[in-house]
Amino acid sequence: MNYDGNIEEIEEIEEIEFPWLIFKLNNSLYTVNSKLITSIVIKPDEITFVPSVADYITGLIHLRGNVVPLISLKKLFKIKTDEENGDVKESKEMVIVLEKDNSFAGLIVDEVLSVENITAFEETEEIKKMYKNSFVKGVAKGQKNNDVLLILDEERITNIA
To answer: By CB distance 3.0 to 4.6 Å, which of 4, 25, 38, 138 could disulfide with 123?
Structure first.
């Protein structure tokens, strides 16, 4: 590409857009940027229990030679489980595995729905105040539907594992 003096053209090329993974916790939709996602797996039956850790850490799994701590987002966000709400249905729980600086974290979610490019999102102080733990950093709208998606701060979540 020849540079013609238009700096906006260069900035546009350098901007890399990552797809966003959309998933469910109970009836709410969340999204996380896919740049840290290494894999998505069905929640394994065998999880190694770890004593004396925060209640949102449900244990450890071995995945492709790596030890991955599992984080229950429902417990982290203090969301009632389906069983606590009186709903008994077959579990489809999935684990979204994130990697940052050679450390891993697995996020337990109810269901993975889709991967989309999200072009319009807003990170606001109001959202951060509503979610005092600031694991939620904004809201967005997906391209396939008009549902509001809560944007997770995947880097902050991986730092607690």
So the answer is: 138
Please check whether residue 109 is in contact with residue 96, taking contact to mean a CB–CB distance below 8 angstroms.
Answer: yes
**Per-residue pLDDT band at 14 (split at 50, 70, 90):** very low
Residue 91 has pLDDT above 80, yes or no: no
Q: Which residues of 113-146 are buried (b: 16+ CB within 10 A; e: fewer)?
A: beebebeeeeeeeebbeebeeebbbbbbbbeeee
Evaluate the CA torsion angle 41, 47, 50, 56 in order and state its sign: positive
Q: What does the pLDDT look like over 21-75, one tens digit per residue?
A: 999 999 899 999 899 999 999 999 999 999 999 999 999 999 999 999 999 999 9
Return the domain boundaries, the chain.
Answer: 18-160
CA 13 to chain centre: 27
Tell me which CATH code domain 18-160 carries.
2.40.50.180
CB proximity list for 39: less than 8 A, separation 6 or greater? 63, 64, 97
Number of H helices, E strands in the chain: 4, 11
